[in-house]
Write a structure and sequence with these properties.
This protein has about 375 residues and is mainly alpha-helical. It contains 15 helices and no strands. It has a domain at about 165-295.
């Protein structure tokens, strides 16, 4: 069992959620500005998408932390509580986002950047969180909903992993095995498209990146971090994991250069895992040192409402982007100033909307989940 005071040292987790949410909002802000960015600026801003992997670390860590608090060892009532909590934490706001998507589809079809589908299968797979099993449906209704299906599938395995993976060494071994499998799969995809790499990338590249198998190593790194905290591991222990991911990244880059004559540390390379591990090192640093730029009341509040910010920010972006572009506001400014203004306005607007949905959808949804659990528990013989 973790020491009691250790449970109280995770206030920074909400701050990191806030950081992750703002990273994703900022990186998507450039999408709705119809101008071409310099390649370097595009690359730097695009790295804000790694906020998704930061979310994954935090999610896996907090799931293990909550099961540790419950002293979970396979009890059926705690398992029921776990799944009900997870469902009612995710579903209410996600279903609300689906409703908003359908409103955009039928009443605001002129808004760009929202390629919303509305077939029965799209809706069915979305509300059952199974869209990740269908390559063409990973983002069929809600922008970035692929992360929700990845998370929900991961939730299914967490109770089993919590019992079986109970030490730092075991968590590292599991990560090493899954990351190696992912490396081999990525290499096979590159080989399969070697004759027409450009067309192959357009068709399959993002589908690979958004798949559960590819993102699983990043989620497992959250479990690695849990045992870093639980067993009091240091930077040196994490550097060993970083070395493994770095070696895989080099191997992938060389392989890609040989097969398609392009050394590209791309989204489907292990370099994503390298950045995820760097996040762990950052978190350890924040844990050991007071870092007020990240760990402060404002960031903790943004972290508290981060789910709504993440899920709804794209709707905010397209509305504000459409307004600014149609009114030709800031036309005389450079694209850098436009980006700063757009990302700032969208961040503030998203925080405002997420605060409302947290109060009126997320919190009531979680309370409803506890009522459902108590009802089902009382029905049991």
């Amino acid at each position: 069992m973790l020491e009691k005071n250790l449970f109280n040292r995770v206030g920074y987790i909400d701050s990191l959620r806030g950081l992750a949410a703002m990273m994703v909002v900022f990186t998507h802000s450039w999408i709705v500005i119809p101008e071409t960015y310099p390649a370097l600026f595009h690359q730097i801003v695009g790295e804000g998408a790694r906020g998704v992997q930061l979310f994954f670390i935090i999610s896996a860590f907090t799931l293990f932390l909550s099961l540790e608090k419950l002293n979970y060892t396979g009890q059926k009532d705690l398992l029921l509580l776990y799944f009900i909590r997870r469902f009612f934490r995710i579903a209410p706001l996600f279903y609300f986002a689906i409703l908003i998507s359908l409103i955009f589809k039928y009443f605001l079809p002129h808004f760009d950047h929202l390629t919303i589908k509305n077939s029965f299968l799209d809706i069915l797979t979305s509300i059952t969180f199974t869209n990740g099993f269908f390559p063409t449906m990973f983002d069929s209704l809600v922008p970035n909903q692929w992360t929700i299906s990845v998370e929900m599938l991961f939730y299914v395995f967490v109770p089993y992993l919590f019992i079986k993976v109970n030490t730092f060494k075991k968590s590292v071994r599991l990560y090493v095995v899954t990351s190696f499998i992912t490396l081999i799969l990525s290499m096979l995809f590159i080989f399969a498209g070697k004759d027409n790499p450009h067309e192959w990338v357009n068709k399959i590249y993002f589908i690979i990146y958004t798949s559960f198998p590819f993102q699983l190593p990043n989620l497992l790194l959250g479990i690695v971090y849990f045992f870093v905290i639980k067993e009091g591991k240091s930077y040196k222990d994490v550097l060993g994991v970083l070395s493994w991911a770095s070696i895989q990244t080099i191997i992938f880059g060389i392989y890609q250069k040989i097969i398609v004559n392009k050394f590209d540390i791309s989204m489907i390379s292990p370099r994503i895992q390298v950045e995820t591990i760097l996040f762990i090192l950052l978190i350890i640093f924040i844990t050991k040192n007071n870092f007020p730029f990240i760990n402060n009341k404002v960031m903790r509040y943004i972290g508290k409402i981060s789910y709504g910010s993440y899920l709804l920010h794209f709707f905010v972006l397209v509305i504000i982007g459409r307004l600014i572009n149609s009114l030709e506001l800031f036309n005389e400014l450079s694209i850098y100033y436009k980006f700063i203004i757009m990302s700032t306005v969208c961040s503030i607007s998203t925080i405002f909307i997420a605060s409302i949905t947290y109060k009126y959808i997320e919190s009531p949804g979680q309370k409803l989940g506890l009522k459902v659990f108590n009802f089902l528990k009382n029905k049991q013989p």
